Predict the 3D structure of the following.
Amino acid sequence: MSTNKPILIVAGEPYSVFSEILFKLYKRYQLKNPLITIASYKLFREQMKLLNYKIPFNIINKDFSYKDLKNNKINLINIDFEFSKPFIKISDYSNSYNKKCFKLALNLIKKKSFLGLINGPISKKNFLKKKFLGVTEYLAKKTNTKNYAMLIYNKDLSVSPITTHIPIKKVSTSITRRKIIINTILIKKFYKNKFKKNARIAITGLNPHCESNFTNNEEKNIIKPAIKTLKKKYSNIFGPYSADSLFMSNNIKNFDVVVGMYHDQVLTPIKTMHNFNAINITLGLPFIRISPDHGPNSKMMGKNKSNPESLISAVKFLESQ
């Protein structure tokens, strides 16, 4: 029994590796705070059986009491979901299930106190239906949050892309001074509030070597003016830097966070450096939202070989708050 604040979990895409890594978390990590998972009991039970885990369930309802929660059991709020096999291909059928899970989570987080929300991966193509770039934007819309940012967090080095899940051909027209300023301010506030730290932030350019011979030079017209504005209010703001050399060991050690112009510019190096030891935090929401830094990974479903480190890192981060 625990009276500590729980962590709320939306299991996400029903046909993903998330149930596996959740089972591994219970086996490998001793929880300080209880977890409450929103998912299909029948589906989780079948997946657990297939993967050969034996973790007890504690079925609760949306009006649960904190005294009813257990740290050593899967505290689960059941969402009805009919399925034919424990693991099958992602399809439109899972959309209504995901919507029910997120809707319940957002209602609960308004009424009860949680350390934060963790969501498992979802299929952007099926669930978001081109209406949202990712869960970051989906939750921002659902909570009427105008200013938000994606932070891929690791205690040694974090990164934040100005543009998220968009085609590379649209990046240059999607970068704005305002977005660079908002992202950087949210990161500054996050580090100050959570770690009492004046984060050292490096901001990248967009073009190779931060140069362009074209009239529409993003460094000159957008990035440098944004940095100039930020420096009037904050210290430890640096850039723009060329991304091809910024992440070299002698350079990157001088910074806590890199703000990059597009997804792969900063996520490729941080995943190379930290593997699964990083978590995706949405800054600016009325609650802390974290997603393990991986997708549904349908090719690995049922193989029991997925790495749970990112989920464990997410739980540890919330427990430390």
